[in-house]
Amino acid sequence: VIGVVDYSGGNLASVGYALDHLGVEWRRVGKPEVLREADGLIFPGVGAAGPVMDRLVLAGLDLAIRAYIGEGRPYLGICLGMQLLFEVSAEDGASCLGVLGGRVVRIATRDKLPHVGWNTVEQSRSCPVLFDSGEHEDKSRSGESVVGRGSAGRVRTDTPREGERQSRIGTSFYFSHSYVVEPSAPITCGVTEYGGVHFTSAVCARSVLGVQFHPERSGAKGLALLERFAAAALVGRACLTPTPCDIAPPGVFDPTADSPAGLKCATGWS
Amino acid sequence: VRDGLELSATVLAKRVIACLDVADGRVVKGRNFRSLRDSGDPVERGCAYAIDGADEIVFLDIEATPLRRSTLVSLVASVARELFIPFTVGGGVATIADFHALLRAGADKVSIQTAAVASPELVSDAAAEFGSQCVIVAVDVERHRGGWEVFTRGGRDRTGIDALGFVQEIAERGAGELLVTSIDADGTRAGYDIELTRAISELVNIPVIASGGAGSADDIVEVLTTGCADAALAASIFHDKQYSIGEVKARLLEAGVAVRIC
Prior knowledge:
By secondary structure, chain A is α/β, with parallel strands linked by helices. Chain A contains six helices and 13 strands. Chain B is α/β, with parallel strands linked by helices.
């Protein structure tokens, strides 16, 4: 069963409906005990970092989620659910879970914020759960993509090399945020550009995955991502990324270190 | 180490938003904020638009009253079960509790109009509680003495408030997006009020959704280029199948506007 963190404030409903649609069994996780039976955990996040962290602490879920991830069990953080994995957020100056090294900062652009709408995620490192194999190959333009010269927008401040956009079409997902993560270790696997800023839009580090966009609101491609996560979690694949990552800074839990005893880590599966 | 961050060359797409006016749980068709008739199931319509390539759907309950709030909440839940693209819901929203109920039922964003004029602190409170991204302020305006005046109650009541000053205050209070409807243009199919959309888009640093007056695909191109809108909302041209959303996107692409193709 997939657990969905319920901090009584956000978009639990849409993630739940998406899992229902996919036929995936799921349960609300509103208190630590429910985490025990979860094969995978999804933390769907909307809202502000401070109030949500307060609610997690109140419910004892902060420590429970840290422990869950510490056991190497599969986790997918969506938007705020990814941001809260890091050490500190510039939003409300909130102290976060500190599972991953790095911080959360406001997007350093003079363009409009929040960054709302459909933007492209380019795969900068392989992750078979976040990205379908072949999804980002150059072979076709048939996938859901953001195309166009972009000349009508006010977002571009630099000019891509001729043909660059055509040859680098990623997959389009729905974004809605003003803050982005800055990991201190090279765990970025998806990159997006807005207002002249390139930011990390997806991370993967062994059993921990995070996306800045909303797969539950991104049509068929988003549902497929959730389905791949659920499938990987339910078969007990604790290691969701085929390539080992570098080490997080000392004092911060390191999901990339050697797996605890007994953990099934099928490196290289795809 | 910001690994791989220099690789990307992506762009935020301009959005095409389909709007469905609803009353008592059914789709209705309005013109100049008046005259209604029943024309379908909101869930079915919304999903059809999503398949056709709509980037978002807006459901506006044009007859919302506190008594009917539960109808709107259950509509939101039905929509959220079937629709897996973002959707906004609005109509009669006046309190933090309304926001909570609608978001909890599965809405991605909630739009407020009359309440944002009557009590602008609702914008700040909702943004603090749920995040700016889900707070949409719908501003209905009419040209008046060389400027634009804000109207409330779905375009029925004039307020004497200057639209440009109002949107600035609302943006400062933490609204996530503005849904700007020209009462003059609405229902005419003669094109958006380009001057209005442009003036507001250049004034505030949050996304602007243009609404009112779409009569052709070229109108949508114009408001997203000359009009500087971040998104274009249309109801009747999609409703009457005059254009499909796919056709509008093809036209946008031809004009060099970044759009999501699916």
